[in-house]
Amino acid sequence: MKKEFYNVGIIGGGLMGKEFASAAARWCHVTAETPTPRVVGISDPNPEARKWFEKLPELKYSVADYKELLEKDDVDVIYVAIPHNLHAQVYCDIINAKKHMMGEKPFGMDYQANAKIMKAIKNNPDVFVRCCSQHPYYPACQELIRWVKSGKVGKIIEVHSGFRHSSDLDLSKPINWKRTISINGEYGCMGDLGIHTMHVPFNLGFIPKTLYAQLSNIIKERPDGKGGMAPCLTWDNATLICDSVNEKGEEFPVFYETKRMAPGCTNSWYIEVYGVDCSVKFSTDDANGFWYTENFGKEQAWCRVNIGYKPAYSTITGSIFEFGFPDTVQQMWVAFFRELDGETVDFKCFLPEQTQLAHKLQTAALASNLHKVVVDLDTFDANSI
Fold it and tell me: Which of 91, 190, 147 lies closest to 290, judged by CA?
């Protein structure tokens, strides 16, 4: 370990900013060797949003203008969780200020915004940049990843990866910024959920070659919170079918599913890999369960192993207990700080170049759905949309 700690500033005082600050505050929970994050700054134009952070013992800066944090020499890392339309400007300002950064998905509202961020990264090669995606750090999902990497599944038949919500099934729910193209972007549900579904397949080396998309805008208007109705112009649900290839040159379909209207689902993230020798699956609906198949001649049976609290990076919690969402956030940040510190990381946070590929997929999905065609990703020009 090269550094004992990193000073972190947070831009955006919402839910995920609080989740990181909470994870950092209980860093004593982690027993794996890793630098310690110290939250020293919060920036949000809303003073009420900053109040929660101002009780943190090591906080030194509480500012409305994020640029004030970038001017502080004692701020090493910036975590930024803000609406999509602000990503290009703020992310580029952070990177150009030579601050290491963890940015929320989708890393730019559209392909062009992402290109600006990627240019800033290229111009600042010494700045460490990653994208936030915590769900793969469940121990049962890490077990799935190990099985696939080891070749236990054999020749892959197909892969399913998805994220399902159901809160928008409440038709009385007022419209929010994620249903507004000017703030969320035209990707709709894909922009907010897509990178989460792509993290494991991309890190396993499953590269999409063609894409066919089915996008649905189910609810056309919602209450505007002022007694009237507002148009809903973004996509509620999306399914992307990608012919993909792995490092062995084997081809198979990968299905990416992002849904804001999925009956029965609160916050369901899942990954399923079906193979000739065996199949494996994980879902946050059964957070401690790792599922795999055993073959009995012509028959296969699903078997469940209760993985328990066995994270990639050790903590004080015993293995007999249960693992939860706040733990995934902390484990993701351990991976971030260890890699920033020059350590080898088996499962990395989402890479900037992977966000570029994610944007290409999502832009191609808009084109595929519009023209009802299969898109060849090798020849597709994402700037044409």
Answer: 147
Q: Which two tokens stand for residue 179?
A: 């249903």
Residue 74 has what pLDDT? 97
Task: Give the pair of three-digit tokens for residue 333.
Answer: 């940040």
Whole-angstrom CA distances from 223 to 173, 176, 189, 227, 231 are 7, 10, 19, 7, 9
**Stretch 154-158: mean pLDDT, rounded?**
97
Strand order in the sheet with 129-131: 61-63, 36-43, 5-11, 77-80, 100-103, 129-131
When pLDDT is cut at 50, 70 and 90, the band that residue 1 belongs to is low
- Quick: pLDDT tens for 210-227: 999 999 999 999 999 999
Superfamily of domain 136-321+350-371: Dihydrodipicolinate Reductase; domain 2 (3.30.360.10)
What mean pLDDT is reported for the chain? 96
CATH of 5-131, one of 3.40.50.720, 3.30.1490.20, 3.30.70.100, 2.40.70.10: 3.40.50.720
Only one residue has tokens 């903590």, namely 315
